[in-house]
Amino acid sequence: MKVLGIESSCDETGVALYDTERGLLGHAVHTQVAMHEAYGGVVPELASRDHVRRLIPLLERVLAEAACTRRDIDAIAYTAGPGLAGALLVGASFAEALAMALAVPVLPVHHLEGHLLSPLLADEANAFSSDITPASGHESALKLCFPFIALLVSGGHTQLMRVARVGDYRLLGESLDDAAGEAFDKTAKLLGLGYPGGPALAKLAESGKPGRYKLPRPMLNSGDLSFSFSGLKTAVLTAARAQALSEADRADLAAEFQEAVTEVLAAKAVAACRQHQLSALVVAGGVGANRRLRQRLDEAMAKIGGRVFYPALELCTDNGAMIAFAGSQRLLQGEAPNRGGAFAVRPRWPLDQIP
Ligand code: KG4
Ligand code: ZN
Is this structure's pTM higher than 0.90? Predict the structure, then answer.
């Protein structure tokens, strides 16, 4: 079965064709970063209009890459939420209309489900896993199987979930305020870095020394699996206001900020694995591309005989492949597709409330 995936929840247009027998046949992403850069953040109306412009050319590109035609598409999956309402509606209308024209089933998919299943996308999920050997004497999961713990770290969410199987997600803890990616973006802005801030801040941190500035580790010892990142941003602001920052100061501050965020994320992810006696941890969402976070998680999970599974780097940020994959798994499980042409998007949609 060949499933077309459409992603348009925020500032990336993603289209992909996933074959349940042969794997990913083609995928293409257009990022709107350059367009939103001038405004320092995503402008929803511009995002929607750009999705309209990109979807058909991206579809043509993916079909060409896959050496397929529209007639080869067996089903369509699209992101129905959470995300920007207008942007979601563009992808939803496109997918629903195309499905009607081709007379194929169409399925709305939760964006975060796409992210958290993405490490399963390749059969050889193992190829993307940590390359740090687990401590000897511990049995480690060599291949990703259910159940596992998922750490979702994106621009809008920071959540720890227990994933029992496709469609069975239990929320264990989440951020009480800013998401990790949001904290990266806002702090980057404070330090005068461009949008999107996460990768820019991570880059600056590489040349800095953590520890010179002292930032808190919010909720590290709270005894639960909740997070809080908004205070960290304020602490950076206070430090930045106290003195005129040189380039080296900014790098040191960025390095300390990255240490603080990644320390808390790693500690709580490992705590979730311990509490649930699970040795496989999946990391998904844009912040999952952060190298320091990966290093910390790999080391911490190896110490408890566990293993971390990541999506391929190019599939960490928003893309159509993860949506095609999540849709295909739901269809394989027998989920009824959307019928009758009526559809709705859900800009706010908790992952543990999917049917
Ligand atoms: O999952 P994603 O592409 O979009 C959402 O669904 O939100 O995540 C985007 C977030 C942004 O906040 C971006 O700054 C952050 O991921 N991000 C990073 C890195 N790459 C992307 N944050 C820290 N380090 C990175 N290397
Ligand atoms: Zn995302």
Answer: no
